[in-house]
Design brief:
CATH superfamily of chain A: CheC-like
CATH class of chain A: Alpha Beta
Low-confidence stretches of chain B: 8-12
CATH architecture of chain A: 3-Layer(aba) Sandwich
Number of domains of chain A: 1
Order of helices and strands of chain B: EHEHEHEHEH
Strand content of chain B: 15-25%
Largest sheet of chain B: 5 strands, parallel
Number of strands of chain A: 8
Order of helices and strands of chain A: HEEEEHHEEEE
Number of strands of chain B: 5
Helix content of chain B: 40-55%
Helix content of chain A: 25-40%
Radius of gyration of chain B: 13 Å
CATH topology of chain A: Chemotaxis protein chec
Largest sheet of chain A: 8 strands, antiparallel
Mean pLDDT of chain A: 90
Oligomer: heterodimer
CATH topology of chain B: Rossmann fold
């Protein structure tokens, strides 16, 4: 695990969350897990590739997703609409985009995939085990859990 | 001649804009900002290929272009637009904003680069800059 990169990812994410859906966005505790901890109703996945590889998964309740999107859109949606999905995807994309920009400016070439949003119940069935750093981000609209896996190419 | 983009009451569309982003939220956000400027008419494309055809059809005054998109990504789209129209005024707007990527976008033909999240002030400044150079 590239813990130096993980710090950049968490810092960039709390910055973007503070700017876009702030003012409050902080991380209380960080834990290393054997697998991603992402079983909530709305999950956003961004792949990382280049001189390092990995992925970032954000998961949150549907109510948190709707409220975050409402803050971004200036108008609360009635439920998990396509625009709500797009809003939470864009929030994740801005956070990870800023992080990989910082990583690239430090000399490691890293690129990101467009975000994929998955919604529904029982989303925590990952078929692969991979060491993951889990950082719960507290926002005014509920907790967004950030799962980060990033390592050098072998 | 200096061009000023004002915010406020609507006016005749003197400036046309093509917003290119795969994110519906990002397109809506940019459209709302553009709609707040006087004399701007905005249209949208959700990927690089659609942007190429819309650019050829509309010949917009300016283009707001994302980088990370599925399929034909933003910088290659800029390169293709500028090959056919070297006078194209393209502003890159992306969350991916490291030095080499900005340089790559500029070498492809973009004239300005705005990191996300975009503010009305940053967009207004960039539009005024590309309209006067």
């Amino acid at each position: 695990m590239r813990l130096d990169f993980v710090k950049i990812f968490i810092d960039s994410t709390t910055q973007i969350f503070g700017e876009v859906v702030g003012p409050r966005a902080d991380v209380n505790s960080i834990a290393m897990k054997a697998n991603p901890v992402a079983g909530r109703e709305v999950m956003t996945i961004i792949g990382l590739a280049g001189e390092a590889q990995g992925r970032v998964i954000f998961d949150m309740s549907q109510d948190t997703a709707v409220q975050l999107a409402g803050c971004m859109l200036g108008d609360r949606s009635p439920g998990m609409t396509p625009l709500v999905r797009s809003s939470v995807a864009e929030l994740a994309s801005m956070a990870i985009g800023r992080a990989i920009s910082a990583v690239n400016d430090r000399g490691t070439k890293l690129r990101m995939s467009p975000p994929t949003v998955i919604t529904g119940a029982n989303l925590d069935s990952f078929d692969q085990c991979f060491e993951t750093l889990v950082a719960p981000i507290n926002t005014a609209y509920g907790e967004v859990r950030m799962n980060i896996t990033i390592q050098d190419l072998e | 001649m200096e061009t000023t983009v004002k915010r406020g009451s609507p006016a005749d569309a003197a400036l046309t804009c093509l917003i290119v982003d795969d994110s519906a939220f990002a397109r809506l956000h940019l459209r709302r900002i553009m709609d707040s400027f006087d004399g701007v008419k905005a249209s949208e494309a959700s990927n690089g290929n659609e942007a190429l055809s819309e650019y050829n059809r509309l010949k917009p005054t300016i283009v707001l272009m994302d980088i990370v998109m599925p399929g034909l990504e933003g910088i290659e789209t800029v390169r293709r637009i500028c090959e056919s129209d070297p006078a194209a005024r393209i502003i890159m707007i992306s969350s991916v904003s490291y030095g080499d990527k900005i340089q790559e976008a500029m070498e492809a033909g973009a004239r300005r680069f705005i990191p996300k999240p975009v503010t009305p002030e940053a967009l207004k400044e960039a539009i005024e800059a590309v309209m006067t150079t």
